[in-house]
Specification:
Layout: E1 5-14, E2 18-21, H1 22-25, H2 33-40, E3 44-47, H3 53-68, E4 77-81, H4 92-100, E5 106-110, H5 116-129, E6 136-143, H6 153-156, E7 161-171, E8 176-184, E9 192-193, H7 205-209, E10 216-217, H8 219-240, E11 250-253, H9 258-268, H10 279-282, H11 289-297, E12 306-313, E13 317-324
Helix pairs in contact: 3-4, 8-9
Length: 329
């Protein structure tokens, strides 16, 4: 029997029209363009003024299906990574399936913060590899503006809204997902968390008053863990698959901070021209950053390219995926 691998056969992104620049943020909190750019690499981010995460996902997935010539009725499964679902339940994946007309698909949400897309991609690949499904849509989407306190300088400068989606299909040429390493450590949860709204701190007048429904971050601790673990797991997946820096065509790093991206590339021995970077345009869109990078760089990708996706997020969660690109744009 031929070996089946799960290949990305199409990618599409969507970002809202509204651009929130560093200069505009400087009118809200005590900051300036130079301070933000030097520490993060971010110049602007996109903000969704009206609508929910599913509405961004509709734009991305409709574009993906049209681009790949896929009938919505032929999609088997939708895995949607997000920390900003439309509702606590039903899942945003279910809402998305209804809005797009993917009536034969079942779906669910996956919460792994900024690592959500690689968790979802790795999970979706397994359904393809078993031969069970032929078309799996993997979505990374977050409307981070809905859980950000724009009076908190430690978070409001970083996050933006956006969505990316890929189609996974069987490949028999050896392309697609080759390997993944996924990690988590719940002891780091207090350093990057949305403390209110769950069963630990159910919504109340007090949780709203205490701003517990916003993201809370201890930047120094998160930076320290992210630099170490994102770089380490990226190097580990290279070693595990006997890849040298010359063998790697592209690093697709989570777009949280330019210094973390640089540290990861340096650990892997990669030059800047092999690293996908769009943080200056979108900021950190959480589960959306990796597919948005693939979307932005799609025309530069060639069939057979060795690509490593790497991320670190709240939880803590982190990991890397090694895949071979399956098509020429």
């Amino acid at each position: 029997m031929e070996k089946i691998t799960a290949a990305i056969t199409g990618v599409q992104g969507y970002v809202p029209d509204y651009v929130l620049s560093n200069d505009e943020l400087a009118k809200i909190v005590d900051t300036n363009d130079e301070w933000i750019t030097s520490r993060t690499g971010i110049k602007e981010r996109r903000i969704m003024k009206d609508g929910a995460s599913s509405d961004m996902a509709v734009h991305a997935v409709n574009g993906l299906l049209e681009k790949t010539g896929t009938d919505p009725m032929d999609v088997d499964l939708v895995i949607l990574a997000t920390v900003t679902p439309d509702y606590p339940f039903p899942s945003t994946a279910n809402v998305l399936c209804d809005k797009v007309g993917m009536k034969n698909a079942w779906g669910y949400d996956l919460i792994a913060a900024c690592s959500g897309f690689i968790y979802a991609l790795s999970t979706g690949s397994q359904f393809i590899e078993t031969g069970k499904y032929k078309k799996v849509v993997v979505v990374g989407v977050d409307k981070m503006s809905s859980i950000i306190d724009y009076e908190d300088r430690t978070t409001c400068i970083i996050f933006g809204d956006g969505c990316g989606a890929v189609l996974l299909e069987p490949d028999f040429e050896g392309n697609g997902v080759q390997d993944f390493i996924l990690k988590s450590d719940g002891s780091g949860r207090q350093y990057l968390i949305q403390p209110g709204g769950g069963s630990a701190n159910p919504p109340s007048a007090k949780t709203v008053e205490d701003k517990m429904h916003f993201v809370k971050q201890e930047g120094k601790q998160v930076f320290k863990f992210a630099v170490t673990n994102m770089a380490e797991v990226s190097a580990d997946i290279m070693v595990k698959n006997n890849l040298s820096s010359e063998d790697v065509d592209w690093l697709v790093p989570h777009q949280a901070n330019l210094r973390i991206i640089d540290a990861t590339a340096n650990r892997m021995g990669l030059s800047k021209d092999k690293v996908m970077i769009n943080i200056e345009k979108y900021g950190n869109t959480t589960a959306g950053t990796l597919p948005l990078c693939l979307w932005d760089y799609e025309k530069q990708l060639k069939k057979g390219d060795n690509i490593i996706l790497s991320a670190f997020g709240g939880g803590f969660t982190w990991g890397a995926v090694y895949l071979k690109w399956a098509y020429n744009s």
